[in-house]
Design a protein that fits this description.
It is a single chain. The chain is mostly beta strands and about 625 residues long. The protein is built from 4 helices and 45 strands. Strand 29 and strand 30 form a beta hairpin.
Length: about 625
């Protein structure tokens, strides 16, 4: 789906789903025949006729939850909780009235004991959602949810060239709350549309993890190309449940399948991931359990047996393993190895907690080539990895949660929180007979970039600045160049005219790459946010660590800047680093500085975007439950 005037990237779609906050719809409640009155101590009643498309409920992200009961023609429909605005309006939460009988009498009972609340005067009815895009931290080419909080991947698949992604989602405020599951799809990894998703799960907020499998040959008996959804729940130990869909994940049906692991009767299981092991003609399920990863196998996706347990606790006592992934990857010469991914959850939650280890897998157990795992990404904001496998093209992409548990509830976002990282195509590189992960930024990006700027090759024999070269990029662009240097260090700085900047340092002498965001903009919301992330400039095989490192003086650098994030890839994904930033105005300038000697900047190219807005349907919203994607 190439972007046209009618198709947008995720954030554009999101936007206006959106709302967003500051585009408050002006409506006259009297003309709408919408009334609000006190009916009892601590209760207010809202009444109106369902003769419009949407009911708009004013939300304040830091307000307490208020219970709301919905009635239509005196029939109780549902009950939910929302953070109704008290003295500040962050956004309007849209309730789709098309699910009700036209002109039915609707009544809301709201638990609110305050004498004055902003929502009372701001609640409105409307036939459209034509609100301004006012959130300056909304990314353009990274996935973000319309509003509220979203976090980890809850299952992904590719079918007929279309990517589908389920994700954990809490719509009622920008901080963590009891989540639902939402669904998005797109013909590439940058342009997404929201989809309806009915999971047929009574208490969906208890679902803590999930994954998806396409049963292309109907081994399960639920139909050819049925979408099988495996999930775990907080309130049920040692259990994995199965629902299925025959309409590409828009509606799931329950099954009586309940998978339990022998010998783990009182153990909490989560983060299922299922892969196809073709050599054995079976599927393999990975489950995280404390400091271990449990492997199961099945020939029909319903009956499973325990195969092995990978215990990380003996080497890293007290850790918790999350989101295990196992995939077979190849080098550019066709040599293949298996790679195990996992996220470490601990009290530190510092950079590089998403790890990988290369090894062998025989369908029963995984054996690592080396004992030490390496970071997938060296930044502060890369967690809970999720691999999307396109079986039709043998491509594997990695997309992760772009935030950090240390401060995710504290970031300056108003309407929503969290993003997905830039999609990375996975492969292996081989050095000195050792295999390493390569995470190259997806070239699908070139399909959505609309224009380029370039500079002639520059020899930096003194500090060099290209002022305001980014001024029409609105903080969203790709910056690519090659650095050739004979000096100890070179620094690239992205900045605005308010003296806010993020600096990228290539320390050639010590073979270290770092990003410092201490002065990047808003940083004081958490003491854990400012500071530097550090990575090696290139991979050094363990067999060479006691020998002199090879002479490296030329590096390809790709910087993906998207309003509130900066992701850097060295040598096309050999090293990657992801960090959030919150500048108060977009970065406009690029400068280079060095210590002694000369630096040559070549192949300097900036790719940017066109900006426009659109309005889309909210048909994916489920009014009855009051949350998206229930």
């Amino acid at each position: 789906m190439r972007r046209t005037s009618k198709t947008m990237f995720i954030s554009r779609i999101i936007i206006i789903l959106g709302f967003m906050a500051y585009g408050v719809i002006s409506c006259n409640q009297k003309e709408q025949k919408l009334t609000v009155k006190n009916i009892a101590p601590g209760e207010k009643e809202v009444t109106f006729k369902a003769d419009r498309e949407f009911l708009l409920l004013p939300i304040q992200s830091d307000a307490p939850l208020k219970k709301i009961k919905f009635y239509s023609d005196n029939n109780a429909i549902s009950e939910t909780e929302l953070r109704l605005a008290i003295n500040k309006l962050d956004y309007m939460y849209p309730v789709d009235l098309n699910r009700l009988k036209r002109d039915s009498d609707v009544r809301l009972i709201v638990s609110d004991s305050l004498q004055t609340s902003m929502w009372v005067d701001s609640i409105a009815l409307s036939n459209k959602l034509n609100l301004d895009y006012a959130d300056k931290y909304r990314p353009v080419y990274h996935f973000s949810a319309p509003f509220g909080w979203f976090s980890k991947n809850m299952g992904s698949f590719v079918i007929d060239g279309v990517y589908h992604m389920f994700y954990q989602y809490y719509t009622h405020g920008k901080v963590w709350g009891e989540p639902s599951i939402a669904h998005a799809s797109g013909s590439n990894l940058f342009e997404w549309s929201y989809k309806k998703a009915d999971f047929d799960i009574k208490d969906i907020s208890q679902v803590n993890s999930g994954c998806v499998v396409i049963d292309s040959n109907d081994k399960s008996g639920y139909g050819n190309n049925s979408i099988l959804y495996f999930y775990t729940m907080d309130n049920v130990k040692n259990s994995v449940f199965l629902n299925y869909s025959n309409n590409l994940g828009e509606k799931f049906k329950k099954t009586d399948v309940k998978i339990s692991v022998e010998g783990m009767e009182n153990t909490a299981l989560c983060d299922p991931k299922i892969i196809r092991y073709d050599k054995g003609g079976k599927w393999v399920m990975l489950l995280s359990s404390g400091s271990s990863v449990v492997l199961l196998s099945s020939s029909d996706l319903k009956e499973w047996k325990k195969e092995s347990v990978l215990d990380f606790g003996s080497k890293l006592p007290g850790i918790v393993i999350q989101n295990p992934e196992l995939v077979e990857l190849a080098t550019d010469k066709g040599e293949k190895k298996w790679v195990l991914f996992y996220n470490i959850k601990n009290s530190a939650d510092k950079a590089g907690n998403t790890k990988y280890v290369v090894g062998n897998f025989d369908g029963v157990t995984f054996t690592a080539d080396v004992s030490q795992a390496l970071p997938v990404d060296y930044g502060m904001d890369f967690a809970t990895p999720a691999i999307i496998t396109n079986t039709q093209s043998s491509e594997n992409y990695l997309i992760s949660w772009m935030d950090n548990a240390l401060y995710a509830n504290l970031t300056p976002n108003v309407i929503y929180t969290n993003y997905k990282t830039f999609p990375r195509k996975l492969s292996l590189i081989k050095k000195a007979n050792e295999f390493y992960l390569n995470t190259a930024p997806s070239t699908q990006f070139n399909e959505i970039a609309k224009f380029t700027k370039s500079l002639d090759n520059v020899t930096v024999d003194k500090d060099f600045s290209t002022k305001e070269i980014l001024e029409d990029m609105q903080g969203c662009c790709k910056i690519s160049f090659t650095v050739t240097s004979d000096l100890p260090s070179a620094t690239i700085v992205l900045s605005n005219n308010l003296r806010e900047f993020v600096s990228l340092n290539l320390n050639f002498a010590n073979k270290i790459f770092s990003i410092d965001r201490s002065n990047s903009g808003l940083v004081k919301f958490s003491s854990d946010f400012p500071g530097s992330s550090v990575a090696p400039l290139y991979i050094t095989p363990s067999t060479q660590k006691k020998e002199p490192t090879p002479d490296m003086s030329k590096y390809k650098v790709d910087i993906y800047l998207d309003r509130t994030s900066v992701e850097v890839f060295i040598n096309n994904g050999e090293i990657a680093m992801t960090n959030l930033i919150f500048p108060t105005s977009p970065y406009e300038n690029v400068s280079f500085s060095r210590i002694g000697g000369n630096t040559t900047i070549s192949d300097f190219v900036i790719q940017g975007f066109e900006y426009n807005a659109t309005v889309i349907s909210l048909g994916w919203m489920d009014w009855v439950e009051g949350t998206a994607g229930d």
